[in-house]
Structures are given as C-alpha cells and as structure tokens.
Amino acid sequence: MTTRSKDGFLSRLTRFVGAENLSLIIALILLVLAVSSQTEFLFSSRNLFNIAQNMAVVGLIAAGMTLVIVSNGLDISVGSIAGCASVVCALIVTGSGTVAGGLAGGIAIGAVLGLVNAAIINYLRVNAVVATLATMSAFRGIAFLIAPEGRPVGVLDPTFALLGSGRFLQFGGFPGVPIAFAILVGVAVLAYFVMSSTVFGRSIYSMGGNPAAARLAGINLNRMRLWIYAISGALSGLAGVIVTARTSSGQPASGTQGLELEAITAVFLGGALLAGGKGSIVGSMLAVLLLAVLSNGMNLLGIPTFYQLVAKGLLLVLAVAIGQWRMAMAERRQAKLTAAGGA
Amino acid sequence: MPSNILDIKAVGKSFPGVRALHNLSMTIGAGEVVAFVGENGAGKSTLLKILSGDYQLDQGQVLLDGAEVSHASPLAARLAGFRLVRQEPEIVPDISVAENIFVGEYPSRSFGRVDFAAMRAEVTALLKRYGFAGLINIDAMGRSLSPAQMHVVEIMRALKPGVKVVAFDEPTSSLTSDEVERLFELIRKLKAEGLGIVYVSHRLHEVMVISDRVIVLKDGQQTGDLVTVKTDEAEIVRLMVGRELIHGFKRQETSRDEVVLQVEGLSSRWHRDISFQIRAGEILGFAGLVGAGRTELAKVIFGEYRRDGGRVRLLGRDSDIRSPADAIRANIGFAPENRKAEGLILVRSVVENAAMAIYARLARWGVLRTAQMVEAVGPVIRQLEVKSSSLSQEVGKLSGGNQQKVVLARWLAAGPRLLILDEPTRAVDVGAKAEIYRLIDSLAKEGMAIMMISSEMPELLALSDRIVVMRDGRLSPPIEKQDATEEGIVALALGTGAAA
C-alpha cells in the first residue's frame, strides 16, 4: 500500500523531471558525494545560500535560452545584453532614485536588444549564431558607451541592493532564502508553464523540430522568433539587474562576461538538442544547479579558475555530444525497425 | 549486330515498403541508342542511379563491356566507363568551365599541384572533337553559363576518356529546338564512335527520332522491348499504362452543389492561366508528370508561394491568402507530399503533430493543456487506427503509413472545407493505402472539397470525380470520371497529342 503510493509519486516525479534528465540527477548526486567526501563545508548553510545566490543569474538566462535553443536558434549575445541592462539600470536608479524604474528599465532594454537579434535573423536572413555573435560584440560596446567614460556606475540605494543580496525567512542559524533565488524560482515556474501548457510554448517545440512543417501548419515563424528572442533578452536584462544589485554598480563587462557559455551549456546538459525541438525548463534548471555545485565545489577544493574554464568548455562539448549520440542511437533503432518491418 | 556493351542481368532493388525494380534484364549494343520510357515511379531513375553507382543493387549484376562492374560508388561506375548526364547538372559557380569539367579528377603535377595547362588542352580538344568549340569559353566561370552551356559542361564531363556508355536523363528539358537538334547530332556521332547510349525521356516524339530501341518500364518491370522503327507512340503509351485497378473500392455518391474553391486565370512563377473549380463533396484529381507544377499549385493556393495574378474564390468570396496561417484560418488544409520534410515534426509526439494546426482554436487565453489536445485529436487518431504505442510516442518512430495517417489526422481534427492532398499514399504500404482511400472517400462524403494530386493512375481513376492534367504549368480542361482513361491522361501529361 505504502510502496504503491510511493511508486505513484516516483513515476509522477520521473515524468515531471523527464526520463532523460535522470542521468543529470545521478550526476548531481555523484558530484555532491565526491565534493562532500573532500570537504564538509559543502552542506554548510552559508555555502548552500551562496550556491542558491550564484544560480540566480545564470538560471534566469538559461530559462530564456531554453526557449531559444528549443526553437532551433541560439543567442550568444545574452552576456552583453546583461551588461547593457546593468549599466542602464544603474543609471536609472542613481538618476531617478526609483528602484522599480531601474528594474523595469533593465528588463526593457534587454527585451529591445532581443528584438534587434530577432529582426536581424528574420529580415536580414542572418543565421542566428552569426547574428548574435555580431551583437555580442556590438552590445558590449554599447554597454561601455552608455556608461559615463566607460566606467562602472556606482549604485548606493540600499533597497535596490536587496535584489542582489537580500534574503527572507532568516531565523536562528538558517541564513534564509536569497531574494534573487526566489526570483529565479518564480521565473522558472512561469517558464515551465509557458513551455508545457500554452500555444506559444507548444509552437516553439513545433518550429524547432521542423520549421517547414510548422509554417505549413500555420505557425508564423518570424513573429515567434521576435517573441522568443525578446523574452530571452528580457530575462538576460533581469539577470543584469541582479548583477548590478549584488555588486552595487552598473558593470559594462565584469560579472556578465562568459554568461552565454554557462547558459548554453546548461540548456544542452538539460537535454536540448542541437537540431531543436527538444529541451525542457526542468532539465535546464537541474543543469544550472549541477553547474553551480560544480563550480562551488571546485572553489571549495581550491582548484584554480583556469582549470575551471577548461572544465566548462569540456562540459559544453560533452553535453552536445551526448545529445547527438542519443539522436544517432534513436535513428539506428528506427532503421532496424523498418528493416525488420518492411519486407 | 554489334556486341553488347552493357548487360543488365536480373537486377532487383527494394526500398522500405516498395519494390522499385524487379528482376530486370536488358542489353545495349555498342553503337546503339536505347530509350527508357515509363510513367513516374516506373523505375527509370532507380535504374539510372544503380548504373551510376548512386544506389546499390540488391540482386543481379551489371556487365560493362563483358566485365562485371561493382557499382559500389559513383566514382567506381565512372571509372568503369558508365557516365550519366544528369538532368540538372551540378555546376560549381566560382570555378572555370575547364575546372568544372575536371572537378574531382584534376590532372596533377608534382607536389599535388593542378596541371592547369594539361587540363585546358584536354578540354579544348574535347570541345573541338564534339563540335562545341565555338559555344563555350573554357575560362568562363560556372555562374555565367546559360542552362544549355551548363548542359554542355555536363556532357563533356561524361565524355572524358574511358567512356563506354553514356546515359542522358531528360536531356532536352531545358533546351530549345535548335539545341535539341545539336544534341541529336552529338548522339549520332557518339553512336558512330561505338558507344552505348541510354536515352531517358518523357518526350516520346524525341524518342521516336533518336532511338534504335525502346524499353518500356512499368512498376519496376519491363513491359516492352521494341525496335523503334517498328512501333509507334500509341503502342508505347499502351505498354506504359494499364496498371491493375484498385479492387473492392468504389466511391460513394455525393451531392455536388456548393462551389468551395474557384480558381480563375491564376498565374505564378510556375503557372499560366490556371482555372478550375471544386465543389463540396467532390474530389478533383490532378494528374501530370513530376515537375509539371502540381505541388507548386497546391502551395500557391495554400499561401506558401506567391500568386502573381488571377482570382481565388473560396465559398464564393474573393480570398487574399498570403501565408499558410491565412489559409488555415480560411479553412483550407494541406497534406504535403514530403511528410518528413514538410509534414511532420519527427521528434515530437503523435498528439502534438495531430493538434498542431488547431492549437489556437483549442486554447483559451493562450493556455493549452495536454489533456485538451488529447481530447481533441484522440478520437480522430483512434478512428484512423494509427498504430503507436501511445499518443505521446514520437512520430519519427512510426511506420510510413502511420505517419501519413497522423498528417491526415491533423486535418481531420481541423475539419477544413477544402483539403489539398499531395501524393497521399506515397511510400505507404498496401494495407494502409486502402484505409487512406476509404478515409478520403468518407471525407468527401461529409462534404469536404478535395484537391488530390497523385502520380498513381489507379488511385486517380478510382477516387476522382473529375481529373485535370497539368503539363508545363498549364491545366487541361477537366475530364469526367466516366470519360477518363489511363491512356488519355498519360497522353495529355506527355503532350503527345493523342486523343483524350
């Protein structure tokens, strides 16, 4: 009786996580065991707080990137968008003194830059990788240009700083939940709902799996792309705002460089296919957690940053290679099936 | 009689679900021009591709000049002496004519350097020998060539040393009548040199002029081996057609009154002055050769391609469809010919693929639960008896027939007034075919207007209420079911002028 209800829960959990993400959970468990065998500091509440806080920025970008990659696109400019948003939001907060204005401004500039990406892809017919590689450079330049003299813009508003380092539910020895992490959870839940239960999300899967067939089924690819890149841009902008709040300054570059690599790695680790049409928010978020624990663990074990860079690069190759290998295996199975079935 | 230069013995080739060639044997003598004719799908292209090494044969053997050829690769076939002149030659745009002719086989000097001097000398000699010297500049870039010049490049590729048999695949489709005459002169010259010539064409009058023998293919088998001077076009057409009709299937009677689709004077990149109409409950069959413009017409009506002129009226009202999304809103459905490329999202589930076109209709405030999708398309999928392990199974894992049923389920669920079907039973096994026929029939019975493009004569004759034939972007007047014969339709499609 109890085991049956437990099974029901387990199978429901498996469905939610996705069977293809079980390996991710296993990898996470192995990683935790490996790190905690070397240092007991991993499970300290302060460290867990740090991990949660560090996840927020990459997690927000990875949520948007999931939409982009599932639609068979790519956005390399997300880090630069976050940089622009960071500067813009710092200027608004210091100039007007309104926190809400800074938050809205950062998100809005992100959405606008995302629309620029989509417009380049749609109307100039530039491939997504090349288009966003170009805007990665251009947007970073813009971030430096709008920052007075190209220097970081200091923000001293204490309310605004809460977005980066604030916490709630703090009591006794428990350090509380970082506000930034709570924002990520909120965004992830919303993104999960959008991807799984809305016309927009379903259409992203369709267009990513086969754009020609999606168009013939009535999906307007250009309009979809405008929305997808705008959302990815807006979430990158939000990530930029959080970076600003944490560092108390609008940073054109520092803190947002290299975010594209981590976000893209997370999405592919989370089960997305290079060819599009597959991927999930749950998978991407699990992968973000895995990456956060990995880099935290390497810090705890005193592994130098340079090794970490190499490890991150390897991880991206590994993530995509696993996806390609899965596809190849599925195709081989299919070929065998037809060979057996068709006489 | 000259000795055999090409000997094809008991060759067979199958694709999943289709037997493309069955126990085919034939010979071609040195200095002989043999034409291959047959309807779409008769096996001409498959045979050419086996000879050229693009496909591997399953059974039989091919002898070239007495020696067995292992047609393991296109290169092996070339080296053995079989050369194919393709209908649409691959010309590299940014290299010269001489390089295009020798691409892949550049003569070389020490250190892997290309011997440009030798290459140019050889190309010049080739062009002179076959009378093309004044026609083409060997230093011109590929992109500057006219279609006829591209054809010359393709022919020169074939005639490089070592050639024994040359096959021309629809060689005159892009040529003017003067150029055709020049091609025939060339073929006569090659014949005099003792090469074996294969001439594949739909244009029977050309076949009658240039060939010594005509081999007729039908459904992957040989139905005739005729000496050209002793036969005529009518006999050839008779041997090409006459496939078995579909047994045990009869269309239900439907009332036809309301005109659903009316096309008047439509023109586009591919079409001139197309007019026809389809009434509710009617199946209008579109016959024609591959490349005649039928698929393009379907896509123009569906808003995928642009219409340049003419009117399209739906249910009596002028329609302005500019995209597939517009077409779907106007209650048109389209099941494309190439399921995998244009019909299905292979990595997604049966439910999603079936519900894709009606997402917006199913949703409330943009929210669409899987349960709603299952509710909407589940009954249709069950009705069609799609064999899948579950509704959430990936479509890529289904058989061809079941994949096609998923495409049809999509439009069944959408319930359009006009349904365009492009080769609805292509690469579908026999059992599933019969089910698909019954389904199309019942859709018409329910009052749907159906535009059905098919290259399978029995299918067209059994299902259509009326048949129109497209040829080079123009449409014949409709033929009523009772007046339609396979011979008449094939004659119209080929443009042989035989009475319809």
CATH topology of the largest domain in chain B: Rossmann fold
Q: For this structure, what is the CATH homologous superfamily of the largest domain in chain B? A: P-loop containing nucleotide triphosphate hydrolases
Helix content of chain A: over 70%
Number of helices of chain B: 18
Number of strand elements of chain A = 4
Task: Describe what is shown at a glance.
The complex is a heterodimer of chains A (343) and B (500). Chain A is mainly α.
Which SSEs are present, and which pair or pack?
The complex is a heterodimer of chains A (343) and B (500).
Chain A: H1 2-17, H2 22-38, H3 45-70, H4 78-96, H5 99-123, H6 128-146, E1 153-154, H7 158-165, E2 167-168, E3 177-178, H8 179-197, H9 199-209, H10 211-216, H11 221-247, E4 249-250, H12 259-269, H13 281-300, H14 305-341
Antiparallel strand pairs in A: 1-4, 2-3
Chain B: E1 4-15, E2 18-29, E3 33-37, H1 44-51, E4 59-64, E5 67-68, H2 74-80, E6 82-85, H3 97-102, H4 116-129, H5 147-158, E7 165-169, H6 177-192, E8 196-200, H7 204-210, E9 213-218, E10 221-227, H8 233-240, E11 259-267, E12 274-279, E13 283-288, H9 294-301, E14 309-314, E15 317-318, H10 324-329, E16 332-335, H11 339-343, H12 350-355, H13 359-362, H14 370-383, H15 400-414, E17 418-422, H16 430-445, E18 449-453, H17 457-463, E19 466-471, E20 474-475, E21 479-480, H18 486-494
Helix pairs in contact in B: 14-15, 15-16
Features:
heterodimer; A: 343 residues; mainly alpha; ABC transporter involved in vitamin B12 uptake, BtuC; two-stranded antiparallel sheet; two-stranded antiparallel ribbon; 4 strands; disordered N terminus; B: 500 residues; alpha/beta; Rossmann fold; 7-stranded mixed sheet; 6-stranded mixed sheet; 21 strands; 23% strand; globular
